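Obj.: predict assembly geometry.
Materials: sequence records (below).
Method: joint structure prediction, all chains together.
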Amino acid sequence: MSSKPSIPKGTRDFLPEVMVKRNYIFSTIRTVFEKYGFLPIETPSMENLSTLTGKYGEEGDQLLFKILNSRIHESNKKDQLRSEFELSLEKSRNSEILTEKALRYDLTVPFARFVVQNQNELSFPFKRYQIQPVWRADKPQKGRYREFFQCDVDVVGSDSLIHEIELVLIIDEVLSKLGLTDVTIKLNNLKILSGIAEVCGEKEKLVAITVAIDKLDKIGIDGVIKELREKGVSENAIQKMDPLFALNGSNEEKLRSLSTFLELSETGLKGIEELSYVLENVNKIGVGKANIEFDVTLARGLNYYTGAIFEVKANNVQMGSITGGGRYDDLTGLFGLKGMSGVGISFGADRIYDVMNELNLFPDSVLASTKVLFINFGEAEQFYSMKIASDFRKKGIACEVYPSSVKMAKQMKYANDKKVPFVVMIGSKEMDSGLITFKDMNSGEQFSGKPEDLISRIK
RNA sequence: GUGGUUGUAGCUCAGUUGGUUAGAGCAUCAGAUUGUGGUUCUGAGGGUCGUCGGUUCGAACCCGAUCUUCCACCCCA
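Observations (raw structure tokens):
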């Protein structure tokens, strides 16, 4: 029996009205990326499972969309398939006989794979951008989809902090171009977090510690301490961490008190130095309205970051981070290419869309693709209009001729609904005089003149 | 994955202890206005009440399952 067709949970169809707005976001981002010298690449939707597993931590592995191997019903190893499947029911495991491919989880790890694989074609430092969908087998919520677009910029083969500085400038420029001015760019450095763990004498508990203090905002000091205890962090270490929770003041003040805290950790001090350098120089160059904040509690779970960590939050909107990233010193090392430091960020296009939609930040002009609509008064008038429309298009003006000579109110309404700014009327009067009548739909004013008069008005 | 929540017209939502033909606003379409939209007036169309099953003389309403939405945890764009 036929039931309504549907699409998988967490995926969406995009109607034209939505697509125009999405494309506005993509093209804004792309334009900025290119202005900073980044070049586009694409990689396949699916990667070998072995490329992805183990790169995102245990949680990440669970969120991979694995692809079942094709034609297993034709296999002559059915016993092996059965026993592997039985084992998979008991615990998470990857068995190549069952699944050897997965949809990509992000764009960074496939990029590292790409760099290693194509290293002889690339010249370093290599700056690339990549705008493609990624997939996560997460439980969907608001702002959390199973298929969504990431817009990544990364540079590999350079450990210069100039890139960290430029990434902050890129974030600022993209978001202010989109009208997202009330945002906070949070910065931290993994070396600072390592230093903290070191000073507390719990170096090997780094992940547990960072994950716990990341939740400070949410669960408070007591909650963090409780979680630290549960994770087996010693009382002594927890006590030592106390000053961290009291950090406040300007970025400089926070860094100063932290450098005292970290004075015995070479790594920690290096982190402070890097972060100070980035903050100082970003300030010198200057950004728009974005707040830039050093946040010690900012810890991203990804276990490949080694230096700078970035995260961007839109203020006054209930939405997770809209951009995130960091520096990874040895991601290509996992694929056999040592000594290639990389750093990059990723804009979450779908979340940016949701935030912009909620705050009504899409300009009307985004929706107005057609600049001129020619009213259709009949066949002779229609072809006369089409000739002029053709001239307009040669001048780069998007226009259309209404397809049939239905009553004018309907044609006007079409222009109005589509937010077309100018309507041209050519009836027998205009055909005789060689002039055209055109109306400015915003002001309601109507003029008579040559086609060039309208063109100059539009430009 | 665990726990909870939601679903009624294209959209936002009413719908009484279970009781004739399920309503409103907005949107759509038609007319008032045969060369003038966005304002106004009149009218019309549009629903298997998420889906499947159960209880009942009778279900939008009660029960079960399933899907979906949103929320918390986990994690994250």
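Conclusions so far: The CA atoms of residues 214 and 298 of chain A lie 6 Å apart.
To do: check interface contacts against the pulldown list.
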